[in-house]
Here is the input.
Amino acid sequence: MASSMEDIKTLRDDTGVSIMQCKKALEEGGGDIEKAKVLLRKVSSQIADKKADRDLASGTVGVYLHQGGSVAGVIVLSCETDFVAKNEEFKALAYDIAMHVAAMAPQFLTKDDVKDEDVAAAKAVFEEEAADKPKDMQEKIVVGKMNSYLKEKVLMEQPFVKDADKTISELVKEATQKFGERVEITRSERFGA
Here is the structure.
């Protein structure tokens, strides 16, 4: 099915992905823009996985200072080249993620950064909360609460404040596809008065 130029343009405006990739995704999705977005997210993940071993030699610092100066979010968004680091869309992405950090106050960058002691302490609390539930449900409850805890505390697992349908991880993978090179958040801090 041939896609209309309006649909291709709409998908490109929504995702920032190249026209050819948008056209291909629309064709695979039968002209459905929402299906095409899902297909592009899947491709983004595959592209990011392929580029995972590339060196990050450049990047930009994203800084968001909330009105009144009481809260700030700062991130380092790394990439492979100066060409991408100087791109205005790349800088805007760094700013948006810094704003997210200021708003959501993540404690950890990735799941790997969560210490075993933190996991054990959270698990102990959740096991105590589930103690009065039926035995066969307790483990499911604890697992669900642990997943929720990680989603709340880990930056890469959090839903993006500007688009709750995407996690920060998906946003970074989409940036890898969009800019054609590895993109990664290498540092994140939140400061508050």
